[in-house]
Amino acid sequence: MRFTSLVMVASVVIAVGGGRAVVSQEKASALDAVVTKFLDQHRGSWHDLNVPEADGRALYDLVLKNGCRRALEIGTSTGHSGIYIAWALGKTGGKLITIDIDEGRYREALGHFKEAGVAAFVDARLADAHDLVPKLEGPFDFVFIDADKEWYTNYAKAVLPKLTVGGLLTAHNVSQYGGRRQMTGDFYEWIKSQPNLETSFSAGVMVSKRTR
After folding, report:
1. What residues form DSSP beta bridges with 142?
2. Model pTM?
3. Quick count: other Cβ atoms within 10 Å of Cβ 200?
4. pLDDT in tens, 106-140
5. Alpha carbons 77 and 83: distance in angstroms, whole number
6. Any residues with CB less than 8 A from the CB of 109 and at least 6 apart, and which?
7. Is the dihedral of CA 80, 55, 46, 72 positive or negative?
8. What residue spans define the domains of the chain?
9. 8 A C-beta contact, residue 77 and residue 52
10. Is residue 174 within 8 Å of residue 187, measured between CB atoms?
11. Most distant CA pair in the chain: distance in Å?
12. 11-210: what fold?
């Protein structure tokens, strides 16, 4: 994979809230080498409910650009999106909590996180997200929803109070066009109705930023 790091200087410096996280170029380059080798070797094999490569890149860019450090993923599948999120978190000094209910996918994802070199940045949990997500304390500055579509609105309602101002609530398989919104029901309408969210799209990812 030809994936250009966002920062090509002596160190990777990212604004994080009121402070700054610094990762040496040496560490960032080492992480890049391991992750890109893994993704190159597995390109074309992500079929089990995983995001496509372009959407994974969008997640990586969003986390890194916004300096996110406390991330939640609802719907691990076998780890493709989580690898991109954790890759960026490895540079911001953050960590990802990712949840999946399927034991087979969960165990496969654990192996992928380890092989991709991002396991240290991931807290993978085998659980029912319907039960676990409302119990998570937060706060989070990045949330990615890619699980059972009919539950998207419920997930968003559970995590929005825990999302920091400036934080990102993102979701997969969401369309702003009425005819393609059947899977996620009233989710997009609910998102648009929230006065503290500004929503846009990046690749195949809906991105809502909390403004207050």
Report:
1. 71, 168
2. 0.89
3. 10
4. 999 999 999 999 999 999 999 999 999 999 999 99
5. 11
6. 76, 77, 78, 79, 82, 98, 100, 124
7. positive
8. 11-210
9. no
10. yes
11. 48
12. Rossmann fold (3.40.50)
